[in-house]
Amino acid sequence: MKLQILGCAGGMARGRRLSSYLIDGRLLVDAGALGAIGPDELEAVLLTHAHLDHVLSYPMLLTSRLASHCETLEVHASADTWRRLRKGLLSDLVYPDHTAQSTLAGHQVARTHTIDGPFEVLGYQVTPLPMVHAYPCLAFAIRKGAVGVIVGGDTSDSRPLWRFASENRWVKHVLVEVSFADGLEELSHQAGHLTPSMLEDQLRGFRRRSVQIHVIHVKPELHGTVRRELRARLGDRVRVARDGQTLTIG
User: Fold this and answer.
1) For labeling, which of 27, 98, 189, 206 is most exposed (least CB within 10 Å)?
2) 69: which residues sit within 8 A by CB, 6+ positions away?
3) DSSP 80
4) Which domains are seen in the chain, by residue range?
5) Are 71 and 44 in contact (CB under 8 A)?
6) Interval 188-203: pLDDT, tens
7) Which pTM value belongs to this model?
């Protein structure tokens, strides 16, 4: 099982890509920036929530499949995420929704699924984990065989990730957000994000040192500060992820 970090930035900046994580070249988690892959490479998509930095490329992904011979794309999201996308980004006022149209091969462009509990897609077992954010957001625990990974959504409370990883030994890697620097805890709570000090506090009691922890969603303008603060607080227990990085899960 391989996870490619197409983008993991918490905002737009030169040389940084928005949230997109590709598993085994088939399963995509979030669609912030998809320039690194072709539209016909994907078979399924999981969306954590409807904030623009996580779905910016999604409408264009659907459009790009119109002129292809792709099979139907299976897309999974919460009811809240579908409601927000259909009222906003895919409302025709902003961009057309090509979900129900056909590809050149006659397949429907995409089929939407509403997440209401654990499910299977492409042979992966997926467990959604509710996050604490500005509005409903999910993390995804994704398992294939005896190994798996948690791709965290935006949150000000990462403790559900650590509880799940403690109870499920197949979790080998966790991607967790840290958006803001220390001293911005009030803003972080308001926006539903983490700081290094908040992550340090929430990691207390998590004893599985073999789990590799990767920090994602750092605000580009705070990247250097957050990296130094994480190093000072948590040493080599966590690593700051980078665009283009590939993780081998297993």
Assistant:
1) 189
2) 40, 103, 104, 105
3) H
4) 2-241 (3.60.15.10)
5) no
6) 999 999 999 999 999 9
7) 0.96
